């Protein structure tokens, strides 16, 4: 949810709470507050719908979001209408129940299980490691501007990682680690991040991707594959995405991707050589 939607939602909740209290105590201004809350309800629903649709990648998931948003909007408007004794408040309530029932029966399968969840055991995952190119130098030149760039980078990545069904694990200075269900989703997410950063920002990011078994403890992940992804990222250039041969074997048949073989690389602190490929964005 974007910040604007969150703020509108907070205002709506406050207006409903205060307006309801005024209505119970029969204080002046209750009608105006509740009527205003109805407007904020509409605004919140519209912006929430826009936010959710922007991160959904298929038609069925988007329709499910529309249906759920409509049901929630009708529930809220029905409640406000009842407090204000507006006509059709009962009809709005019945309609919300019907639409919510339709959502439960026909659309929950498109929104359930979309987030990647870590299991308390070993599991195979596609690991994406990113960092900002020249971050130390940037900090030496302008700390405030660099911290702002770090915040923008985090915002872009978290939104797109969620869109591609990934899970943001942690941030380490200017670097970040995320994991995905598949190699394709990790690569497509990396491409989307690179394109948005190149189009909108004045800093560059490099990325490394590897597929390996991972372990996790206290919301952190461990394993040789994490180190490999980090080292692959370190040999990538500005605005580049590099990945291991394991990733390449999973995406080699995608005609929409242009891939260059970088040969076998001796990565720092990795006990074996890794064949690395570069994605041309």
Question: What would you note in describing this structure?
Answer:
- By secondary structure, the chain is an alpha+beta fold.
- The chain has two domains: 3-110; 123-280, 2-Layer Sandwich (Alpha-Beta Plaits).
- 56% of the residues lie in helices and 20% in strands.
- The chain has nine helices and eight strands.
- Strands 1, 2, 3, 4, 5, 6, 7 and 8 form an eight-stranded mixed β-sheet that branches.
- A hairpin with a 2-residue loop joins strand 4 (205-217) and strand 5.
- The model has no long low-confidence stretch (mean pLDDT 82).
- Coarse morphology: elongated
Low-confidence stretches: none
Mean pLDDT, all residues: 82
Quote the CATH topology of the largest domain.
Answer: Alpha-Beta Plaits
Report the total helices: 9
Overall structural class, as computed from helix and strand content, comes to: alpha+beta
CATH class of the largest domain: Alpha Beta
Number of strands: 8
Tally of domains: 2
Characterize this entry briefly.
56% of the residues lie in helices and 20% in strands.
Which short descriptors sum up this protein?
alpha+beta, Alpha-Beta Plaits, 8-stranded mixed sheet, 8 strands, 56% helix
What order do the helices and strands come in, and which of them pair?
Elements: H1 3-24, H2 30-55, H3 59-84, H4 89-106, E1 123-132, H5 135-141, H6 143-163, E2 167-172, E3 175-180, H7 183-200, E4 205-217, E5 220-222, H8 224-234, E6 241-244, H9 245-251, E7 258-265, E8 274-280
Parallel strand pairs: 4-6
Antiparallel strand pairs: 1-3, 1-4, 2-3, 4-5, 6-8, 7-8
